[in-house]
């Protein structure tokens, strides 16, 4: 069960959801609080798998430093409210809280208000995801369904199916195409202009 604590600060409301599903909380990885939040309507029916195209990591301290650097880049250079991804998985097979289950992320332009973005630290054009990383993400998704954050009939997609990118990388994309709920033809859910 997720516990939610909210604090009203003038017109800004900040909520902290105690991480569930085995997720390393933002507080534990020493992340910054979001500048602003927009709540994600749940349950969400789209899960987007990505990679960061950064170096990978295998130790907790390396992974946490990479995530802090990504968050700083997103908030300082790109002017996002928070780290863009909903969750980030390291080479240490730990899942880290990004914008989380409750808040709209900034991971896939045009789809942020209707999806969860899960990003693997590393470049999966070059690297193979480990069985432990893959299992961690499968468990996160399963828990998301059990907790009511994800619809039981959610669609799983690779980032590149929705925008022009190489993400999640050839090797990770090849793997997720074998997962239940993978949506081969994304045209039914694509934003139409």
Features:
193 residues; alpha/beta; Lysozyme-like; 5-stranded mixed beta sheet; 3 helices; disordered N terminus
> What is the CATH architecture annotation?
3-Layer(aba) Sandwich
| Cα gyration radius (Å) | 16 Å
Portion in beta strands: 15-25%
> Low-confidence spans: pLDDT under 50, at least 5 residues?
1-18
Q: How do the helices and strands follow one another from N- to C-terminus?
A: EEEHEEEHEH
Largest sheet: 5 strands, mixed
Number of domains: 1
Mean residue pLDDT: 90
Please give the alpha-carbon distance between the first and last residues: 38 Å
Per DSSP, the total helix count is 3
What structural category characterises the helix and strand content? alpha/beta
The CATH class label is Alpha Beta
Overview of this structure, please?
The protein is globular and about 35 Å long. It contains 3 helices and 7 strands. The longest helix is centred in the middle third of the chain and has 18 residues, at 60-77. The termini are far apart. The protein is an alpha/beta fold and 193 residues long. The protein has helices spanning 60-77, 131-146, 170-176; strands spanning 4-9, 12-17, 44-51, 87-89, 95-97, 116-120, 150-158. It has one domain: Peptidoglycan recognition protein-like (Lysozyme-like), CATH 3.40.80.10. It has a 5-stranded mixed β-sheet, covered by helices on one side. It has a two-stranded antiparallel ribbon with strand order 1-2. A hairpin with a 2-residue loop joins strand 1 and strand 2 (12-17). This is Peptidoglycan-recognition protein. Residues 21-163 form the Peptidoglycan recognition protein family domain.
């Amino acid at each position: 069960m997720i516990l939610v604590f909210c604090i009203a600060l003038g017109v800004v409301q900040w909520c902290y959801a105690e991480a569930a599903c085995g997720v390393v909380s933002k507080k534990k990885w020493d992340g910054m609080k979001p500048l602003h939040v927009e709540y994600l309507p749940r349950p969400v029916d789209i899960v987007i798998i990505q990679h960061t195209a950064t170096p990978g990591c295998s130790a907790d301290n390396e992974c946490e430093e990479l995530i802090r650097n990504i968050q700083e880049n997103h908030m300082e250079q790109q002017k996002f409210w928070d780290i863009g991804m909903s969750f980030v998985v390291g080479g240490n097979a730990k899942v880290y809280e990004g914008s989380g289950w409750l808040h709209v992320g900034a991971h896939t332009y045009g789809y942020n208000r209707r999806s969860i973005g899960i990003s693997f630290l590393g470049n999966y054009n070059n690297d193979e995801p480990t069985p432990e990383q893959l299992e961690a993400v499968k468990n996160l998704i399963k828990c998301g369904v059990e907790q009511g954050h994800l619809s039981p009939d959610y669609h799983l997609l690779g980032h590149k199916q929705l925008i022009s990118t190489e993400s999640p990388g050839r090797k990770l994309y090849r793997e997720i195409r074998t997962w239940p709920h993978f949506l081969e033809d994304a045209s039914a859910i694509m934003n139409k202009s």
